[in-house]
Amino acid sequence: MDHTLLKPEATRADVEALVEEGVRLGVYSVCVSPSFLPLDARGLKVATVVGFPSGKHHSDVKAAEAARAVRDGADEVDMVLDVGAAKQGAFESVQADIAAVRAAAPSPTVLKVIIESAALTDDEIVAVCRAAEAAGADFVKTSTGFHPAGGASVHAVGLMAATVGERLGIKASGGIRSTADAVAMVEAGATRLGLSGTAAVLGGLESDSAY
């Protein structure tokens, strides 16, 4: 689980509380806005976002943001692709955009590509997942959680998993607020969850023997 706080009004104190809670809950990472880096995550991985939340940034700006994040200690970078380019079928441009960030944040930095699956058709989801794989990404991720079209869906996660198989990770994020939602995403193929309400989701696992 990526224990996440990306609200614009978040403060340094909020982020420190996030880390403390993340350590207590045993999450994999904390995901925060890049202005909070460098961050002492007390042994947790540190993830941040690039081109967030619209994706409508020049590729060189996204690349510079990613490079700065790595210098500031980010272990993982979650970038937003250009959804408009995907909608117009410019998948070579989408791939080039991802490749620019990959070059700026090479392995072992983990690169996740946020595709805003709720704003895409099935064919577009498949095409952007293929572009992300071709550009060297490590994960495809459903959503920013900020798009008006919505967040993660079981259908989108299943389609993403079917497209990239076990070659890439699948991160489901955006609107996952209950234990049932989280379990459904994992069953559909998600290998990572992005959650802001992590404690409630884990609490449901502990209290319901059905899980």
From TrEMBL:
Q: Where in the cell is it found?
A: Cytoplasm
Q: Which GO terms describe its cellular component?
A: cytoplasm
What EC numbers are recorded for this enzyme?
4.1.2.4
Does Ligase count among this protein's keywords?
A: no
Using the UniProt record, name the top-level EC class of this enzyme in a single word: lyase
Pathway it works in:
Carbohydrate degradation; 2-deoxy-D-ribose 1-phosphate degradation; D-glyceraldehyde 3-phosphate and acetaldehyde from 2-deoxy-alpha-D-ribose 1-phosphate: step 2/2
Domain of life, source organism: Bacteria
Q: Which GO terms describe its molecular function?
A: deoxyribose-phosphate aldolase activity
Q: Which InterPro entries match?
A: Aldolase_TIM (IPR013785), DeoC (IPR011343), DeoC/FbaB/LacD_aldolase (IPR002915), DeoC_typeI (IPR028581)
Please give the CDD domains that the UniProt record associates with this protein: DeoC
Q: Which UniProt keywords apply?
A: Cytoplasm, Lyase, Schiff base
Per its record, the protein catalyses: 2-deoxy-D-ribose 5-phosphate = D-glyceraldehyde 3-phosphate + acetaldehyde
The active site of this protein is located at D78 (proton donor/acceptor), K141 (schiff-base intermediate with acetaldehyde), K171 (proton donor/acceptor)
- Function (record text): Catalyzes a reversible aldol reaction between acetaldehyde and D-glyceraldehyde 3-phosphate to generate 2-deoxy-D-ribose 5-phosphate.
- Recorded protein name is Deoxyribose-phosphate aldolase
Please give the organism. Cellulomonas cellasea
Q: What is the lineage of its organism?
A: Bacteria, Bacillati, Actinomycetota, Actinomycetes, Micrococcales
